[in-house]
């Protein structure tokens, strides 16, 4: 059964444009990652620095393997350099 993952980000105001460009690259490339079924990027209309990802993965294990690879290659540090605070993530499944 697939899982739905939501990740809420708060970008630094001066890094917002660069962060959105980074996420556009992620959206283009992530579906080629093993287990990733879909990704959506949502930007809060009233608080533009508030951005969320909604990702669908085949399993939590596949998602965690993806994150471990990003951390190992230094990509996560690059993402964090754009953020005002650590992201908040939640896993969901169909009820």
| Termini separation | 11 Å
Radius of gyration, taken over Cα atoms and rounded to an integer in Å: 13 Å
The side-by-side strand order for the widest beta sheet comes to 2-3-1-4
Indicate the percent of residues in helices. Answer: 25-40%
Sum up the overall morphology in one term.
globular
Q: Ranges with pLDDT <50 over ≥5 residues?
A: none
* CATH classification class: Alpha Beta
Q: What structural class do the secondary elements suggest?
A: alpha+beta
Give helix and strand order, one letter per element, not per position: EHEEHHE
Number of strands: 4
Indicate the multimeric state: single chain
Q: Which fold does the CATH topology refer to?
A: Alpha-Beta Plaits
Tally of individual domains = 1
Average pLDDT taken over every residue:
95
User: What is the level-2 CATH architecture name?
Assistant: 2-Layer Sandwich
Which range does the strand content fall in?
A: 35-45%
Count the helices. How many? Answer: 3
Q: Biggest sheet, in brief?
A: 4 strands, antiparallel
Question: What does this entry show, briefly?
Answer:
The chain has helices spanning 16-29, 60-72, 75-80, and strands at residues 3-11, 36-43, 50-57, 83-92.
């Amino acid at each position: 059964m697939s899982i739905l993952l939501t990740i809420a980000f708060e970008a630094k105001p001066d890094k917002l444009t660069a962060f959105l460009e980074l996420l556009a690259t992620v959206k283009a490339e992530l579906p080629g990652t093993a287990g990733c079924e879909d990704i959506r990027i949502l930007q809060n209309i009233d608080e533009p620095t508030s951005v969320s990802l909604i990702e669908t993965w085949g399993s939590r294990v596949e998602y965690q393997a993806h994150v471990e690879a990003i951390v190992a290659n230094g990509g996560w540090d690059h993402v964090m350099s754009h953020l005002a605070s650590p992201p908040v993530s939640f896993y969901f499944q169909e009820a």
